């Protein structure tokens, strides 16, 4: 008798980003270089486009596809930007941030120590997706975070 199918597949979390990228093959190469992503699978589509791909970054999965304008599936550059930021916790934010910038990301907020206890910075990848990278440095109470925010002014 076979075992029951898990409602959330092994290795997946409840929430998984799914990005739309103009030239997903280039995005896969960028994420591999910038974030040490490991390609888990790629489903090729017509004209060499990527119908679906799955990458592992740290302990999480990132899914992506090429743009398909005929199906109203376009990336942030086609939309004039994105209101979404993907947050990535890493062991060493300074090294990871530099690696992403060296791979072609644009700095939108340099790395610095933040009032909530993280060392944190923001980039935009070459495909228009926004990322924040952080390393948690200090455990703080909600009151300490509130005070840190007030002191920031």
UniProtKB/TrEMBL annotation:
CDD domains assigned: VOC_like
TM annotation in the entry: none
From which domain of life does this come? Bacteria
VOC domain: from which residue to which, for each copy? Answer: 11-136
Name the chain's protein.
Glyoxalase
Q: Which organism is it from?
A: Paraburkholderia lacunae
Q: Give the classification, highest ranks.
A: Bacteria, Pseudomonadati, Pseudomonadota, Betaproteobacteria, Burkholderiales
